[in-house]
Structure formats: structure tokens, C-alpha cells
Fold Nitrilase/cyanide hydratase and apolipo protein N-acyltransferase.
Amino acid sequence: MEEHTPAPRGNNLKLAAVQAAPVFLNKAATTQKVCSLILEAGKNGADVIGFPESFIPGHPGWVEVLPLSTGPAQSLFCRLFNESVEVPGPEVEAIQAACQEANIYAVVGITERRPGTTGTLYNTQLIIGRDGTLLHKHQKYVPTVGERLVHAPGGTGSKASAKTDFGCLSGLICGENGNPLAQYSLSLDYPVVHVASWPPHFAPGVEVQDAIQAITRGLAVSLSCFVINSVAAVDEGAIEAYGVNDEIRKFLRSEQTKRRATIVGLGGVVIAGPFVEAQEGILYAEVDTGSVVAAKYALDYAGHYNRPELFAHHFKQFFDLA
């Protein structure tokens, strides 16, 4: 990643949250879709656009519904590996060019492949600047549940943010948005806008929207920032790929009816979304970034409203193991 010191700008900012389905396990077509959405958001005056988890080439949702030792799961992993993204690579270059043309910051979820190998994938977010610069790459700290057979633990360290012309832009993936240590680490960078990237579904009986609202409304409060919730949708390609029986197909069809993308303002108030009907599209919200300073007046968890020295002893066991 290149060093990037953006010029300062005013307080007004337009945020964009994507709710869409990838072209499942097709990185070329999904990259084209990402670029089209970036250009659309740019034409509508957006400054920041967030994309769902593992959007290119699609989240491995089969880990929630298929036995992972079966042939179908292994076959889907092989397809995912062959369609995954290398960084740097042509897919990343295309997204960078779209950001430059649209004059927009983008946080894009990908499944990342180790370059030149035949194994090992990561659940990754890319932060790309208005000028097309790759500002930061964040790999998910710990893959969640069945993802652990598909994705390796992240190796990019604690940092999950980048400097921009409006301040700090951060991002986390799915469940790690609720990780207290990840939240505290982000707070030290004082994010103004945070992108939370989410998959199209969890396991049957677990509602994605409940997790999104519970986690990110609190996150907006604790970080005193604006949160873009970008959520994937289920398309026919995913249903065809892992809807192997009537029960799974019925579940996936029900997930197609959900409306989950939102934008959360300071104090945990939802200021945009969800859509009135189940659909693909982009949600927008205009915000005043200057208001984040007033929000820190009472609660600055990275500064005056914390006592990290009182809690340091909790980590001694980890240091001793190291």
C-alpha cells in the first residue's frame, strides 16, 4: 500500500451502502458489477461506498447449510479458489480505475487468494482512495464458524483503517464488528466513517438483521462515527450452487425477501434504510462529519473516557504465552 496524505475537505459527506448479490463465483462478472455500482454512486455525488463481505466472487454461504466433509462443499471450495482475487491483480486494478473515475472512496469485500499458490484463502476488505490508490488491505482476524475451513486467519495485523481527506475511514467484516478489542483498536484511529460488511445469510434460524442492528448501532455510539452497513443479497446463482434440497432452497428463497442495508448515524440512530422492498441497490445518506467532535464531548473511549492501565493485567496471560 502506498503512503497517502490527502488534502483536507469540508464537513459535508455523502455515504453509500450497497445491498446487492454478486454474480456467484464469477469474479470477472462480479468485478464488473462492483465497478458499475461505484460509477453509479459517483454520479450520484457519493464520497464513500461500502460493499458486502466477500462480495467478489461471493461469500461461501454453503458453510452454513451443507456438511463440510461432503463432495458438494469441497467442489464449491475449489470453484471459489479458482475465482478468488489476487492482490495486486487485474480485478483490483479495475476497481481502482473505477474509484478514480468516480472520485470516490470504496471499501470492497473480496475472497483473497495467496498469489501464485494452489491453496489458502482470506476474507479481505480493500480500502481504495478517490485517486485509485490502494490505501489498506484488512484480512478478517478470525474466520467465523464454518468459514474456518475456507478462510485462513488474517495476517494483516490489527490495523483496519486508512487516512482520507475527511478523516479516518475504517472497516470490519461481519462478526468482528462486535469484537471489543477490534473496536478499541479502531477507536485509537478516530474513524469518521466505518464500513461494516455483511454476508447474505447466516445459518437457518439466525437473523442477520438482528446482529447488524445490535452490533453496529452500538458501534456508532462507542466509536462516535457513521456506520455503513453493506449487506449481500441471495441470487439465483447461489441457490443453484448450494440449494441441494427443498429445505435449503426454501431457506434461501426466504432470505431473498430480506431488506438489511442501512446507514447508522451518531448515537446509533438509523438515518437511511432499509429499502421499502427487497431489492438490489444503493442507499444514500448525507452527513456532517463535524458533528463527530461534539459526540466525543461526553464519551471518548480512545481518550478521556477510558482507563486502559486498569485493564492491562487481563492481557498478561497472552504475553506470558508468547
Notes: DSSP finds ten helices and twelve strands in the chain.
